[in-house]
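Why does residue order matter? Because the sequence determines the fold. Keep that principle in mind as you read this record.
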Amino acid sequence: MANNRINKYVGTIAFGALLAMMPGCTDTWDDHYNIDDSALTGTATLWDVIKSNPNYSRFADIVQHTKYYKDDTHPVSTYSYADILKGGQINTIWVPDNSALTEEEYQKWMSMLTSDTEGNSNNGYNVQQQFIGNHIALWRHNISEPGVDTVKMINGKNLEFDKTNSTLGGIALGEYNIPTANGVMHILKGVAPFHYNFYESLKFRDEQTKLGKYVVSKDTTYFSTASSIEGLPDENGNPTYVDSVYHTSNRLFETRSYLPEEGRQNWQMAEKCFGANINNEDSAFVMLMPTDAAWDAAYEKLKDAYKYATIYVDKTKGDLGTNHTYKNLDADSLQKMSIEMDMVAPLVFNIHKQPKINGDKMWTLEDFMQDGGERAEYLLNTYGDTLRNVGDWKKSSLFEGVKPMVMSNGIAYEVPAWNFPVQYYMPDVEVEIENTGQFYNMEGNKYKVGSGSMRYSFSNEAFRDITDVFGKVSNGNFYHLDAPGPTAAPKVEIKLLGNNPNAYVPNAQVMSGKYDIQVVVVPRWYIELANSSRIDEKFYSIIDTLVNEEDITDTTFVRGNEIDMDYVVKLASQSKYKFKTQISYNNNATKDKNSTSVTNTYEGIKEVEVEKDGVMSLDTIAVGVDTITVAEDFEFPYSYKNMRFSYPTLYIEGSTGKNDAKNGFVYDIVIDKIILKRKTGM
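Structure:
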């Protein structure tokens, strides 16, 4: 018996535990896997049986011309699958006979092997993966009793071996349980079906798409010293290897965000990834695969919102009281990287992570193909985005009009359009300032608020009869910017980084283009509500018939203590706000540009027309929570999308003077959030 050894392949396409026996390298194979001939009814090897039968001549011809590949770029030129099938490893092989393997199919595989000798190594590797490796499995798989097994083939694919009906992957067997010295053989009446997984489809298609080129560009193949078998040193004392093992990984697969171990401090953007191993045969994914036309159209649609500067101020350093500026950046490269990874990251969905159908049934791939997941409350991609119906856009529109393609680990939709909603790729930026991490630590005394400044928790539900009239606060919180002194005003600068967990895109960043910039202010008397121990009894009353701005009517109350609307108006009239705002933004200079300062006013009350006893008159009511536009159609010339160190800021300073204070203006300000509503590209 020939000396053989085990070589475990781990690479781009997982062979699982494919064991390739390389003659003459080591004796460890016979030591651990010596065949006991007395336990076998067959004495010839698998290869002996195949080559001796003229009915298998086409298959035999392909086998002996197919080299063994460690991965798609590293063949072992002196070792074929004939050597494997006559070696010591126990295998099961399902052989298509000549009537099952047509002349056309035979010529196709042989042509690929011929071109492989001319330097096209992928062709030989594809024969191994798509044909030879799809008919061989490790160890014996006999038909001894009824049942269905899932067999892992040596190309990593899972095929159903139905012993009850004698089929492999739905293909009927002719003869079966043919014994040999190193395994068992079955004869197929057809060719075992092969399906690409998502990664293989993107990498090995006849015409690779732009999406495929992008994904494959993230491959890294490296030589593994630890896994390789070292031989004698060369004449210079350097190590040589009798078996060289290579590992290939793709950084898009294992994480949602990639930064290199070395030099990461110079990467302006963390690279977005799938966060899903689309090469995993044991998963169930749904993936959108944009055509080249869809790729180009999406790029064109996005590029105006992805205009980058060559200079960015590192605001994270400013938080530490220092200054740093990145200069001479390649704006075109930043644009290309940012757009492409934003196009690719949201494309994959794990079927097992989608919300249950109607709250109780887990999704299957078959369920999903019925309506593109429309019955789900939302779709969750592997990057972590939650996609919900919004406006006229429906989740299922991502998959409409496209016939799904069956992959070995899910279903693919080769879509003619990258059809994500505009609210996803050009979102509003919503900043909840009660997260004090949103305050930018400025130089001098700009960051100046009173000791009473604090975040307040607020229950819209507990005070719903008030908030239904005067407005709710976002996420049950607001922030009180208290005056630093009796007649002084607070001064703060706020990072314009999205952080609203209920926004369509919670972590949205400012992009190039126009926005309306809004400040949502809260009535100062809401602090009275939040501090329940100080609330006057009248605030506990429950309104049965609510009052609104257009139709002021008499109110009916459930309890005897009425809310005194005149009292609320009095509170509101004595807690007006006046404040200045200014935007700091990138203008492609070593220091961010400041916009013109604008003064804004919140009056707290307003007059409305009401009818009483048939007579129209003016009545004064409290405004409540209000949205104030502090900059309309403000244009950011350069994008911050995906930038790690840079962002614009909004400066807010109370501007109440002594004369204003006499007219009901206060020095402090109560703010719920900042909203930047996207205007262009929508």
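Residues 202 and 208 are 7 Å apart (CA to CA).
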